[in-house]
Amino acid sequence: xxxxxxxxxxxxxxxxxxxxxxxxxxxxxxxxxxxxxxxxxxxxxxxxxxxxxxxxxxxxxxxxxxxxxxxxxxxxxxxxxxxxxxxxxxxxxxxxxxxxxxxxxxxxxxxxxxxxxxxxxxxxxxxxxxxxxxxxxxxxxxxxxxxxxxxxxxxxxxxxxxxxxxxxxxxxxxxxxxxxxxxxxxxxxx
Length: 190
Fold this sequence. Notes:
Structural class: mainly beta
CATH superfamily of the largest domain: Immunoglobulins
Number of helices: 1
CATH architecture of the largest domain: Sandwich
Strand content: 35-45%
Largest sheet: 6 strands, antiparallel
Helix content: under 10%
């Protein structure tokens, strides 16, 4: 009887250790279809930084499986989640690559809990730049391949505020397409 009791205690303690892990898990998809072999990069949030936008190095990386799912064990903290699937050669993001930064970043990982994120990948389009006092940015906001109606486009010129608070430019998007004039520079559109 004592062997059975010891075995039960061992199993109970082992299962508690298994559940004690924490991190980030989720699925990568493109227009509702899961995407395999997406490189998932996790960046720890730091003062004055915002992961890939400020040149930080990832603290963890993994790849999505054949079902698009991924998971990364992490210590408790706040993180930025990025996904990229290269269709081109080279380190820089290029037209044709699939890309996403989780829109809920930074995400919080707490002790003993898994935080779920979904990476809705988009195809990086070719760039067409023009020079001038004002530049026009046009695009489409979609969800599962369909134009997203009654949305808002937020444009930020800096990442200091972690994309919280008032945007530099806020524009309603009625039927999924937008066109906005912005001064030359680097802009982050959400």
